Amino acid sequence: MSILRRLDTLNQIKLRDGRTLAYAEYGSRQGAPIVHCHGAPSSHVEGEFLFERTLLLELGVRLILPDRPGISRSDFQAGRRIADWPNDVVELADALGLRTFAVLGESGGSPYALACATTIPSRVRAVGIVGGVAPFEAPGLTAAMSAPLRLMFRLAKYAPPLLDVLFRLNLRMTRSMDERGAERMTSRFPEPDRTLLKRPDILQGFIGCFQEACVNGTRGAVHDMSLIARPWGIDPATITVPAFLWHGERDANVPAAHGRYLSKLIPSCRATFFPDDAHLSVPLRHAREILSALSVEQ
Questions:
Q1: Which residues 6+ apart lie within 8 Å of 210 measured at CB?
Q2: Which of 97, 217, 224, 234 has the most CB atoms in a 10 Å sphere around its CB?
């Protein structure tokens, strides 16, 4: 699988409050628009290794990946809430001339995609969740997560400065990672993610998501995680647009229990659980199914 390239360089718009919002586009400019809410800590780079250019063109999809405030080249927004994100998405859609669009949330991007579905249903034609986290106040779901991710979200909620230190250490590690370091990192992943990460393009894309998220510092990524770890301030049970969910049963990062909780919480959610997939393999192996479901709803 070749690394997907942006249609242009990373783009930026000025929002009404003066902030800069950075975003990347992939696929066909005339295609069905899908706004992708990246994971956490992550960035628009997800589009460069999760989705093949040929598939996007074949399906006629215009994939738009905005970076949330403080991520990559998007300006930090003090005091923001998850419920504020749809405002930025609407301004971006207006700037691109999009009346309606689908929204896709990957992993930690799920609350942001769900916020769009609950807040701006007149603009969102459909919402999709891939390996998405559920609200952390749901009983038992935090304990089911992998130990590293559980630690990150615990620090995000109770000790953000310590998470900032951890992110800085992780940045230093990824920038100096050799072959042995990569092997140690990938060994902690379940199959089939472990095998996928042995491919240089997948590994580079995975690491690049985090590095790009922190290109202007770690503050935005830390704040993003802290918002996800706290009550979201939205109610997915009020969603009225078509909703889809895909989750791997082998996902050790965000266990399938999160997907099952969301699938029951979201009205009329069409959920698919893959018995032989984990966290990364769902979008990498099932991109056609995911993109087709969301683009057909256009």
A1: 41, 42, 43, 170, 171, 174, 221
A2: 224
Identify the residue whose tokens are 């390239």.
Answer: 5
CA atoms within 13 A on the CB side of 200: 3
> Is the whole model's pTM more than 0.90, yes or no?
yes
Cis peptide preceding 41, ω within 30 of 0: yes
CATH number at residue 145: 3.40.50.1820
Pairing of strands 124-130, 243-248: parallel
Sign of CA dihedral 72, 151, 85, 242: positive
Give the Cβ contact number of residue 270 at 10 Å. 14
Strands (E), the chain: 11-14, 20-27, 32-37, 61-66, 101-106, 124-130, 243-248, 270-274
Do the beta carbons of residue 89 and residue 21 sit within 8 Å? no
Report d(CA 24, CA 279) in Å as an integer.
23
227 assigned to some structural domain = yes
Contact (Cβ atoms closer than 8 angstroms) between residue 49 and residue 233: no
CA–CA dist 85, 196 (Å, integer): 32
Residue range 230-280, pLDDT digits in tens: 999 999 999 999 999 999 999 999 999 999 999 999 999 999 999 999 999
pLDDT tens digit sequence for 208-227: 999 999 999 999 999 999 99
> Is residue 239 domain-resident?
yes
3-state secondary structure of 100: coil
Q: How many independent structural domains does the chain possess?
A: 1
DSSP state of 298: -
- Domain span at residue 232 reads 11-296
**Residue 141 domain flag:** yes
